[in-house]
Design brief:
The complex is a heterodimer of chains A (138) and B (416).
Chain A (H helix, E strand, L loop, with lengths): L4 H8 L14 E8 L4 E9 L6 E9 L2 H14 L4 H4 L4 H8 L6 H22 L1 H10 L1
Antiparallel strand pairs in A: 1-2, 2-3
Chain B lengths: L16 E2 L10 H11 L12 H21 L6 E4 L2 H15 L6 E5 L4 H12 L3 E5 L9 H7 L4 E5 L13 H11 L2 E5 L18 E5 L10 E5 L28 H39 L3 E3 L10 E6 L4 H7 L3 E2 L1 E2 L12 H5 L4 H4 L2 E5 L6 H20 L2 H7 L13
Parallel strand pairs in B: 1-11, 3-4, 3-5, 5-6, 6-7
Antiparallel strand pairs in B: 2-8, 7-8, 9-10, 10-13, 12-13
Helix pairs in contact in B: 1-7, 2-7, 3-4, 7-11
The chains are: A alpha+beta (138), B alpha/beta (416).
Bound molecules: pyridoxal-5'-phosphate (PLP).
Chain lengths: 138, 416
């Protein structure tokens, strides 16, 4: 299979590889996928409690080149966004940016899931979920 | 972090390196040389009986038949030319099933066969034949007792491959052949990966029908042969391609003379060089294995290493996904059992038959060493694989979790 240049670039130079302290209150962790499916992504964000801006994002991925590239791209995209803005990121945008072929679309879905899972974890830790829902109810 | 960095390329090593010789092998220059006249001025049809062009072609075909027969301990008359082992396997199974239908309808094979056997068996099942697919043990070998138990009075054919194309495991062929002959059951073997690599003898091994292919033994693609025993027992095969009645009526079609000449020459070379080549490839294979094992943890070899082809090494690099590893070593041609590299998006059914979990099957690489690989290439491949595996593990959440002592089987993964 031929990879797009952007996939190769992210694969070769993955951005924001690493780990944040899971236990920290300002950190949200998303672990998605399954080893037997051939891909597992862990995406972590550190959110500024004042501004709700994602100031740092880290990832580690077990998976094919497209899975690595999708998660690497996801960390780049969430950084600097507020959590609500980050939730707007769609897997189709990842597909487009990386020119993923149809058989690799699940990699982008997994990356979107990872963003949502990380934000969900952070919200849970910080009791934001109720606040957001309460706000939405107004 | 950079996944692909520059691992020093030893002097004399040309990139990319081809180390996928189970998929196909390069043409030996000596084979090409033997073929060339038959691609140019010696173009005759081997079936033309009334002029020198035909005689010349026929002579060349008969020489090739001798060369092939000699390599497997057969006689020239027992060799039927085909377009390759896929056709040989189809002809053997369908031809025997059809011819012996009155005697019985039961066929025994095993789960790790090549698709050319498995899919042929599936078609025969649709036509009313009964097929038993024997399991393999964790090391890839079948259990002879399973075979004994599977045989009944309707069994007409056993088809067990000589050596596996993914894991290189060599089945106890002589033992299987002996059992089949005791029971009066025909024995076919897909010997594509074994012929020319290890000693194969149809008499000593009690083989009745055997498939082989040119392009796995440094010969041309699109040519193969089927050995069909003529005595004790005389095997009969119903033709699957009708026409001019070539190849004793078993396989019609104008013979691929240059291909056949190449196949014959490839067999001759293989016979002459087998002993030294096998020793050299075993040495290279063990060198590669030792280097990888010295530097990497959580790796293991797939398949029994004692009953094993010289040039094969199938390894799982656990917690690294196979396709991402191939991407990192893209100046080396090998293959992976990862689902991502297959058309079906399923991990290798051969590895799964050994009882490997999908996660470990996804992490496997097959190295196929061959005649033209060198020690310097092996050293480069080892260094490159070690480098990329280490980096991909820095990137692997699974490796990190295991290193922290987390039991991955206890995690509730959200399968997708
Ligand atoms: C074990 C085995 N059987 C059969 C085949 C098919 O051979 P051919 O390519 O000559 O049709 C192969 C090669 O892919 C093989 O490895």
């Amino acid at each position: 299979m031929a990879y797009s240049e952007k996939v190769i670039d992210h694969y070769n130079n993955p951005r924001n590889v690493g780990q944040l302290d899971k236990a920290a209150s300002e950190v949200g962790t998303g672990l998605v996928g399954a080893p037997e499916c051939g891909d597992v992504m862990r995406l972590q964000i550190r959110v500024n409690p004042e501004t709700q801006i994602i100031e740092e994002a880290k990832f580690k991925t077990f998976g094919c080149g497209s899975a690595i590239a999708s998660s690497s791209l996801a960390t780049e995209w969430v950084k600097g966004k507020t959590v609500e803005e980050a939730l707007e990121i769609k897997n189709t945008e990842i597909v487009k940016e990386l020119a993923l072929p149809p058989v690799k679309i699940h990699c982008s879905v997994l990356a979107e899931d990872a963003i949502r899972a990380a934000i969900g974890d952070w919200k849970k830790k910080n009791g934001v979920a109720e606040a957001a829902e309460a706000a939405a109810a107004h | 972090m950079k996944i692909q960095s520059n691992v020093a390329v030893p002097a004399g090593v040309q990139l990319p390196i081809y180390m996928d010789n189970h998929a196909t092998s390069p043409l030996d220059p000596r084979v090409l040389e033997a073929m060339l006249p038959y691609l140019t001025n010696k173009f005759g049809n081997a079936a033309s009986r009334n002029h020198s062009f035909g005689w010349e072609a026929e002579q060349a075909v008969e020489t090739a038949r001798e060369q092939i027969a000699r390599l497997i301990g057969a006689t020239a008359k027992e060799i039927i030319f085909t377009s390759g082992a896929t056709e040989s396997n189809n002809l053997a199974l369908k031809g025997i099933a059809e011819m012996y239908r009155e005697r019985g309808n039961h066929i025994i094979t095993q789960v790790t066969e090549h698709k050319a056997i498995l899919d042929t068996c599936k078609r025969l099942e649709k036509q009313g034949y009964r097929v038993t697919y024997l399991p393999v043990k964790a090391d890839g070998l079948i259990d002879i007792d399973d075979l004994k138990r599977a045989m009944d009075d309707k069994t007409i054919l056993v088809s067990i491959m000589y050596a596996n194309n993914e894991i290189g495991v060599i089945q106890p062929i002589a033992e299987i052949g002996k059992l089949c002959h005791e029971k009066g059951v025909l024995f076919h073997t897909d010997a594509v990966q074994a012929v020319g690599k290890i000693p194969v003898n149809v008499i000593a091994d009690n083989i009745d029908v055997l498939s082989l292919s040119g392009h796995k033994i440094y010969g041309p693609k699109g040519v193969g042969a089927l050995y069909v025993r003529r005595r004790n027992p005389r095997v009969q095969i119903a033709a699957q391609i009708d026409g001019g009645g070539h190849e004793r009526g078993m396989r019609s079609g104008t013979l691929n003379v240059p291909g056949i000449v190449g196949l014959g020459k490839a067999c001759e070379i293989a016979q002459e060089e087998m002993t030294s080549e096998a020793a050299r490839l075993t040495g290279l294979r063990d060198r590669l294995k030792a280097k990888l094992e010295a530097e990497l943890d959580y790796i293991h070899v797939n398949g029994n290493m004692e009953h094993h082809l010289p040039g094969n090494l199938n390894m799982s690099f656990v917690y690294v996904e196979g396709e991402s590893l191939l991407m990192g070593i893209n100046d080396i041609a090998v293959s992976s059992g990862s689902a991502c590299t297959s058309a079906t998006l399923e991990p290798s059914y051969v590895l799964k038959a050994l009882g490997l979990g999908d996660d470990v099957a996804h992490s496997s690489i097959r190295f196929g060493l061959g005649r033209f690989n060198t020690e310097a290439e092996v050293d480069y491949v080892a260094a490159k694989v070690i480098d990329v595996v280490k980096k991909l593990r820095e990137l692997s959440p699974l490796y990190e979790m295991v290193k922290e002592g987390i039991d991955l089987t206890k995690i509730e993964w959200a399968a997708h």
